[in-house]
Every structure is written in C-alpha cells, then in structure tokens.
Amino acid sequence: MTATTSTHHWNGILSSALEAVGNTPLIALDRLRDSEGVNCRLLAKVEFFSAGGSVKDRIAKRMVERAEADGRLIPGHSVIIEPTSGNTGIGLALVSALKGYRCIIVMPEKMSREKEATIRSLGAEVVRTPTEAGWDSEESHIGVAKKLRDAIPGGIILDQYANENNPLAHYHGTYQEIKHSIETSDLQCKRITALVAGAGTGGTITGLSKALRDDQAKESSSKSGANGADGQDADEAKAVVVAVDPVGSLLGGGQVGPYQVEGIGYDFVPEVLDPNKPNIDCWIKTTDDEAFAMAHKVIRTEGLLIGGSSGAALAGALKFLHDTPAGRAIATNEDANVVVILPDGIRNYISKEWFLDGALRAPTSNLAQEIAHILRRDISPASAVKQNGTNHVNGNSHSVAHEHNGIVHVDQIKTREGEPSGESERGVEVTTS
Ligand SMILES: Cc1ncc(COP(=O)(O)O)c(C=O)c1O
What we know:
- By secondary structure, the protein is of the alpha/beta class.
- It is built from 14 helices and 14 strands.
- Helices cover 39% and strands 18% of the residues.
- A 6-stranded mixed sheet has the order 1-2-10-7-8-9, sandwiched between helices. A 4-stranded parallel sheet has the order 5-4-3-6, sandwiched between helices.
- β3 (79-83), α3 and β4 (102-108) form a beta-alpha-beta unit.
C-alpha cells in the first residue's frame, strides 16, 4: 500500500505561472511494479505537471532569478540565449515571456516540432542546428549560441551545462519535495533506497544525489551520536544513485552514435555532472526501443502521459532491479523505495513516429472489432485519418465526410456567426473502391 495521507496543494492564489513551476506529485507505479515482478515500491516524480511541462522549468526559473540578483541580467536590455535540447528552452521562454526578456533558443534538428512550436508560441526565437555536429564545433547548438551571444548586444548565455543553479534547483527544490511527499505518506519505511534519473546536463541527478547524500549523512551522524554506533548501519542504509544513459551517448560509457530519445545523453561530459562515485553509483544504458516501449506501457497501464526520456528512466530502473546484484537485493524488499524522475510528458512528442506507431498503428483490439461490427464500418485510426483528411472548414460552412457501406457521404454543415453548429445538408455521395 503506497497511498499518501496528504497531498501537496498550493495555498491561496498564485501571482503568475512562475509560481506553478515544480511542486510536482510523487506517484506510486503499483501496476508497473506488479507487472514487472518486483516487490519494492516504484515512486515516480512526475515533472510534466510543472507549468512549462518539464523538470527544466525549475532550472530556468532559478538561473534567471540568480542572474537578476547578481545584476548579470537586466530587464529591457539582456537577451537570453541558450543551447538546449528544448525543455530548458521552454522554461526560459516561459520565464522570459513573464519577465519581458527577449529570448533565443538554439537546439539540434532532432528535437521535436512540438518543443519548437511551444517556444515560439511563448514569443521566443528558435534556431535549429545539425544534430550530428560535435558539441565543440561552430555549427553545434552550443557553437551557434556562442556566436549569437558575441554578436547581439545584451546577449547572455546562462549556460545550463556549467551553471551551479542547475543542480542547486534540484538540491533545494526537487529533493525537498520528494522528501516531503515520502514523509507525509503512510509508508512504514520513509527512506529513499535508490534514486534513478536520466542524465543530460546531469544537473538533475547531481543535485538530487548531493542532497540525498547530505541528508542521509546528517541522519546517520545524529543516530550514531545518539547510540554511539560506529556508522556501519549508516553504510548499509546508504541509498544507491543510478544514472540512465542512452546507447549512443558517452556519459555512461560506450561509443557516440545516433539515437532518438530527447534530452538525455551527450558527446561530452558537462561541467555540472560528476559521473563518478560517490555522486553516481551505477550507470545503466538503454536503447530507444526500450525507452519508447516503456513510455507506451506506462501511459497505458498507469495513465501517466510521459515522454521518451521518462520511459528510458523507468526502463533503466527496471534493468537495474532485474540485472544487477545491488538491484536484485532492492527488488525483493517490499519496504524499499525506488524514486524515479520522469522529466517530461508525451505532449512534447505527439508527432514523433515512435509515439504514433504505438498510438495509431497498434493492432486492432477486440473491442474495436466489436464496435466495427455494430456500426458496420471500419473504426481503425487509419480510416479516421482518411475520413478526417477530407474535412475542411471554409468560412462559416464546412464539410464532414463519413463512410457507410462503401459509400462516402459528404455533409455540409452550416454554422451561423456565434453559434457552435448549424443544420446539416446531405451533400455529395461518392462510391469508394
Ligand atoms: C526530456 C528530458 N529528459 C531528461 C533531461 C535531463 O535532465 P538533466 O539535464 O538535468 O540531466 C532533460 C534535459 O534537458 C530533458 O529535456
């Protein structure tokens, strides 16, 4: 049983969307746990609930606020420029929209159109760069951002790869929220046994790992002080920090190569990431197929609309639990709490083939066959696309096509100004082959 006795709610009225950054829920993935045959709890920190839809809202807000406090960012003068895989871009565009900064986001081609559209809708500019460009080349997202910064008066790169406020946002924010959620739950054991996160800049895993280590060290020193113990118990209780890295990234070892999952993995080690112990105990590599299959599974079984790197984090967590000695010991322990960070949501990836393949091109279910039998027509997504594809809105009248017994009927729908719908006239009938 993992239900919480209290959930976090905002009090009063928030002054802007900036106050709705973070404060995300910790959700027990009991269905996934049962289907994967592990006994430990899987607790997901679900970051798409944040205002801009990802974990990176937190660092965008903190990096801007700290730079303003230092006098490095000046409203009305500074132009925020950032190389990113997109989510930091959405966060910075959101903060810029609210605070009145001009903002330019530089991101590789492979990142989704949804992210670009979101950033543009927030009023920022987007520059695309070749995905295959090495991080230190002039054409890379980092190289182009530097060129723009040097040429644009007031241009400033807050630099998530090196900015201490990236890990600090998680040290002071994300970790404290996880701790609060667990402490206010009805769990018998309120310790974090393992923490799993994907690494991009590494800010998330580094900030969380440091906060967890500091917290557990404080806890065990106060215990050993009280009992006169020698610290052995403390060592046994030490949490395991697991970083997840896509095949094709060098952060967790291996060859650099192409992969589709967005936001995690790099061809260099960013300054904010310490890839070694005691920061990170173990690296797990995941493939695109594993990440995307897991994202679909969690959407379907847990109702959580997560993105690809969240799928990778969970696939990596389960590989750790199934395939490593330390993981197997945790997997069999009902009291163990495995916290997994899920960085963003599927709405960033709706147009990606890997999502559409699972959502629109999955095999027909028995229920769909039953519906088709009752309605005497094909209701598969492909047929819906075909039918909807003929729909078009024209002024205050539009046509709607539907198929019945091999005949396509095109109805003219008239809509009067200010009214949601109008009378329907039977229009053209076309026999399909
Ligand atoms: C979708 C997604 N997942 C994971 C991460 C990794 O987070 P971090 O940069 O803190 O390592 C990012 C970072 O951009 C991301 O956009």
